[in-house]
What does this fold into?
Amino acid sequence: MRLHILRHVKTEANEKNLYCGWTDLPLSEQGRQDLSALKKTIAYPTAAMYITSGLKRAAETLCMLYERKQDFIDLSNHTIEEFKEMNFGDFEMKSHDDLTDDPRYQSWISGEKSIRCPNGESRELFEHRVMAGLNKLISMNVESVVLVCHGGVIALLMEFLFPGEKNFYQWQPDFGQGYSLDMCQGKTTLVSEL
It folds into this structure.
């Protein structure tokens, strides 16, 4: 399978550096302008199947990329919810500065994978969910897929598929960008960066 993984473009939360996981925000006007500009410089791939996480920012990016209107395609048939961004729980829509004095936040950013965001996920739970999504995608047995999802999801997938090559943050692509991968017989090859 040829898998093209793309990050959605900016929302208002991204512009304000807020934690935005499951909060279902649309693209910002700046995000839309940025994607229009990117489409002039990046040859976005086509595929046999198009999938999103189901969140508005991913679905709107997909529709803009491929000039489809949301009412034209039934995105519920093109959704793998396991590819949603991390659920930041009580930290949703807050910035690092908003949370810096919160001991729960300090505990969570310590790097321990089992520590959950209050009313949200731990890194461990997030990884388990995303890997379940990858297994679901692989089991679909399609020739090629464009997956529009989130920076954290992409970084997690790439860190898992290419262990030791880069860390989580180094794998996170810019908005509207991502990776093309060949996944064949249990082996994954990085074809290109988009």
